[in-house]
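Student: Please help interpret what follows.
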Amino acid sequence: MAVAVYPGSFDPVTNGHIDILERMSGVFDKIIVAVVHNVTKQALFTLDERVELIKESTKHLDNVEVEGFNGLLADFLKEKNVVVIIRGLRSITDFEYESHMSMMNKLLLPEVNTIFVMSDPQYIFVSSSGVKEAALLGGDVKRLVPAAVEKSLLEKYRAGKS
């Protein structure tokens, strides 16, 4: 069984992330979306909220599972007995960062391989941070995120204005 892990903070998950999952779900028997609690970032959504938003946004993909985790990705991969990582790339900057992360993961877990997937051109500019900023300032993010995420962003930012 070909299994891969698609890790990230997904704060929030975007249509670009979903596009990569849809395309890769035809390549792998199972994909585990590993939602990390990133200690270096202040998240808008809690880990549990992000897991639920991804589950809602991927319910049409039978071979996608979603789990939250803390710690090293290499430890998560060992625990799940998975040696393939999926990473999306939008730009050269993403490649530089992701190639370094790939090398670090290879050092920590030599049998691991990272597959880089180029973003669909319509999502090249879409980032979680850009989506959050646009939503905070009242912008329409409907075409950038799944419906459940749009609704949750509106609720979060409305609550913050109260």
